[in-house]
Amino acid sequence: MKLIYTKRQFKVFYSEEHKNYLVLNVKKPFSKGHTHTQHYNQTLYMIDCVIKNKIPKKCNKYFLVSLTRLAKDKKYIEKIERVLNGEEPKQSYRNVPKNFRR
Predict the structure, then answer these.
(1) Quick one: which H or E segment has residue 5?
(2) Measuring CA to CA, how many Å separate 7 from each of 33, 50, 90?
(3) Which stretch of DSSP H or E encloses residue 85?
(4) Is the C-alpha dihedral spanning 37, 43, 49, 52 positive or negative?
(5) Contacts with 61 (C-beta within 8 Å, 6 or more apart), sequence order
(6) pLDDT tens string 34-87
(7) Predicted structure pTM score
(8) How buried is residue 59: exposed, middle or buried, by Cβ count under 10 Å (0-12/13-18/19+)?
């Protein structure tokens, strides 16, 4: 595995054998603080979401579970788990034009 990218406490490795990326949070134990992804851009987006405590509007369940594995902030993890359980809807916004005829 080769080290590809580093940002704060996160490291991204590329495995040529499995052809996927491993994202690791150095401040958590390896078993609880890493996840695997297929695409490089997704790994970067995942790291940015965890740093900014952001929950994406459109994403699958695997992505949300990966965010909980990488995150260290307990409030952020609880918020993601509420979204996963369906208790809290994802944030959405729809811009309705004012000059729209009905």
Answers:
(1) strand 2-7
(2) 15, 11, 27
(3) helix 74-85
(4) positive
(5) 84
(6) 999 999 999 999 999 999 999 988 888 999 999 999 999 999 999 999 988 888
(7) 0.80
(8) middle
